[in-house]
Design a protein that fits this description.
135 residues; 4-stranded antiparallel beta sheet
């Protein structure tokens, strides 16, 4: 039986900065603000890791694989997932496809809250793929 290692790291892509002032326009066209509550998978990181392990259907290619796929997606005000795309990957077509499939099938997230109001946000998720021949 093949065993797969899944490592999930949630990257700080939930529009957070130390102070509430927007970054000066010379540095960025997009203002970043502190939030009351950042977006979150239901039950937090342990549940996200469990979700990926339970729903893992990657068909391992014959080539040796060892790398990360970064998936970027939008979490809408209602917690729905939208605009799923590969942010960084491309080393393995089946890895990219599985990462996108996993994210698209996720349940609704807890959305970002700023000043007591729910808001759309973006998130980048890292999913680690490794061939069983490496372990």
């Amino acid at each position: 039986m093949k065993y797969f290692i899944v490592s999930v790291i949630l990257l700080a892509a939930c529009n957070k900065q130390v102070d509430k002032k927007p970054i000066p326009e010379a540095k960025s066209k997009t203002p970043y603000f502190e939030t009351d509550h950042n977006c979150e998978f239901p039950g937090g990181w342990p549940n996200l890791d469990a979700y990926i392990k339970q729903n893992w259907k990657w068909i391992e290619p014959k080539d040796t694989i060892d790398g990360n796929v970064f998936v970027k997606f939008k979490i809408e005000k209602n917690g729905a997932i939208a605009n799923v795309e590969i942010f960084k990957g491309g080393f393995c077509k089946s890895c990219d496809q599985e990462a996108i499939r996993l994210v698209r099938a996720m349940p609704k997230w807890k959305p970002t809250i700023k000043n007591g109001k729910m808001m759309d946000d973006e998130f980048i998720l890292r999913i680690y793929f490794q061939s069983s021949t490496i372990r």
